[in-house]
């Protein structure tokens, strides 16, 4: 009987240790994606191109309202020319960085990760080319 008792205690302790170490892992996972390069994750912003880097981000987070014929708020991001318009008038960066005076985007969703924002900024810094 005693053996069973100790086995149970040992099991319970292993269990707790596992749960504690797992929850610590989760904390790290949560803090990493947002900091765009720090804390062990890397964010490659070199040679950002519209088709390879920027368009996929917009497709994932914005097309449901601004692509494929959707023009929420009169804003389309479905092709290069319309994206360039929002770059040139400052609305794109204002919206995704949640800057004062702009409607924060994606509307009703979480802000883009710092990495994705930095990728878009890097593409704009290189002239927001149709590349
Ligand atoms: C759930 C729908 C939805 C999603 C997803 C969404 N938007 Fe919007 N967006 C809107 C609506 C509605 C408006 C117009 C109303 C407003 O300005 O608040 C708008 C307005 C904008 C504007 C004009 C902002 C301004 O201040 O004039 C820009 C730029 C924009 N969106 C970019 C984006 C980008 C970039 C994404 C993806 C990262 C995105 N949106 C995702 C619905 C959405």
Automatic annotation (TrEMBL):
Keywords: Heme, Iron, Metal-binding. This is Cytochrome c. It comes from the Bacteria. Residues 49-128 form the Cytochrome c domain. One of its GO terms (molecular function) is heme binding. The keyword Transcription does not apply. InterPro entries: Cyt_c-like_dom (IPR009056), Cyt_c-like_dom_sf (IPR036909). The keyword Isomerase does not apply.
């Amino acid at each position: 009987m005693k053996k069973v008792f100790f086995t149970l205690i040992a099991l319970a302790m292993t269990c707790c240790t596992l749960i504690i170490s797992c929850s610590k892992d989760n904390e790290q996972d949560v803090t990493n994606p947002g900091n765009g390069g720090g804390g062990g994750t890397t964010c490659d912003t070199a040679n950002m191109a519209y088709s390879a880097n920027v368009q996929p981000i917009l497709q994932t987070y914005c097309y449901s309202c601004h692509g494929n014929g959707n023009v929420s708020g009169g804003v389309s991001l479905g092709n290069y020319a319309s994206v360039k318009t929002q770059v040139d008038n400052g609305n794109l960066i204002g919206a995704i960085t949640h800057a004062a005076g702009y409607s924060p985007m994606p509307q009703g969703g979480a802000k883009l990760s710092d990495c994705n924002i930095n990728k878009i900024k890097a593409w704009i810094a290189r002239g927001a080319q149709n590349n």
